[in-house]
Amino acid sequence: MTDDRLIIAGIEFQSRLWVGTGKYKNFAETKKAIEVSGTDVVTVSVRRVNIIDRSKENLLDYIDPKKYKILPNTAGCYTAKDAIRTAMLAAEAGITKLVKLEVIGDDKTLFPDNEATLEAAKVLVKEGLIVLPYTSDDPIMAKKLVDIGCPAVMPLAAPIGSGLGIRNPYNIRIIMETVKVPIIVDAGVGTASDVALAMELGCDAVLLNTAIAGAKDPIAMAEAMKYGVLGGRLAFKAGRIPKKLYATASSPLEGMLGN
Amino acid sequence: MIITLNGEKKEVPESISITGLLEFLKIQHQRVAVELNLEIVRKDKFDVMAIHEGDSLEVVSFMAGG
Fold first, then answer.
1. Residue at B46 is within a domain
2. Which member of A44, A49, A51 has the closest CB to residue B65?
């Protein structure tokens, strides 16, 4: 699928599987899982540098920003103000203008606060950032985010870390019909079939973290996700058969043995 | 002098620049962003921007996350 490129804001992405770096046992496992997944996009958080203990290793010693596109997030922010502050700091760190904008509305569901997300997105787009917003699977919200300048939207499949898979594939389809920008399903997928389904629906990419990092064997799951995305994307491009209620024979009826 | 660094009180040398402070703390400049009294400091100002007694400073970088 060499001509099947994903381009967002002029940036070409090699992989349609985007992977988070949280919750791994250690950085060596993070690095291995990311390599095996075949991704070229990794998400990171923006946090205070540990001033007391400088001996701690840095994630970026393992994940080379020359090899991977670094996508900083605003995870943990509950207000537009905090998310703007975090995103601006991420941009100032000097590796990328990309930001995965998250403004969380509630700590039990980690559902996004869509109103605050839109408010923060407006400011960050004006500041020149490439804002990829995490949003609920709401076509109206997706349209509002695109209208103010987001070059892609990232609707959730299900609550972050829940592993429930795409809870509302019909909304995802309506989002794809409503906005003409790449759709990246973000959060809530559990296993390879979930990412395959997202790709079969026609989504442009899937971002996940816990589904790999929390698997019994994260490295094997990273590989499974790689093939889930590839298989789903190929199936989407191939065009599946319509669903029918009754059977259609696969073998010809001609040449059947006579009585 | 005492400043607030990433939310903790910290004793640092008098009239130090941001570059000087990062060196004092043995932090690599390349991948951090700095906020001085809630204002982001651009990297090209690290050498000239001085830190004063009582200032509040945030030094952030990229960490694991989803």
1. yes
2. A44
Confidence of residue B15 (pLDDT cuts 50, 70, 90): confident
| Interface probe, candidates A34, A39, A51, chain B, greatest B C-beta count within 10 A | A51
CATH number at residue B55: 3.10.20.30
Q: What is the pLDDT of residue B31?
A: 84
- Read off the pTM: 0.92
Is B57 a domain residue? yes
Could you report the per-residue pLDDT of A68-80, keeping only the tens digit for each?
999 999 999 999 9
User: Mind spelling out the 3-state secondary structure of chain A?
Assistant: CCCCCEEECCEEECCCEEEECCCCCCHHHHHHHHHHHCCCEEEEEEEECCCCCCCCCCHHHCCCCCCCEEEEECCCCCCHHHHHHHHHHHHHCCCCCEEEECCECCCCCCCECHHHHHHHHHHHHHCCCEEEEEECCCHHHHHHHHHCCCCCEEECCCCCCCCCCCCCHHHHHHHHHHCCCCEEEECCCCCHHHHHHHHHHCCCEEEECHHHHCCCCHHHHHHHHHHHHHHHHHHHHHCCCCCCCCCCCCCCCCCCCCC
- The answer as to whether B18 is a domain residue is yes
ipTM of the complex, rounded to two decimals: 0.94
**In Å, how far is B56's CA from the nearest CA of chain A?**
13
A21 neighbourhood in chain B, CB within 8 Å: 64-66
Nearest to B64 among A44, A92, A93 (CB): A44
* Domains identified in chain B, total number: 1
Helix (H, G, I), strand (E, B) or coil at B52: coil
List chain A residues with pLDDT less than 50.
1
Query: Within a domain: residue B14?
Result: yes
Can you give the pLDDT at residue A198?
97
Closest CB to A46: pick one of B42, B43, B62: B62
Domain interval for residue B35:
2-61
B14 to chain A, any CB pair closer than 8 A? The answer is no
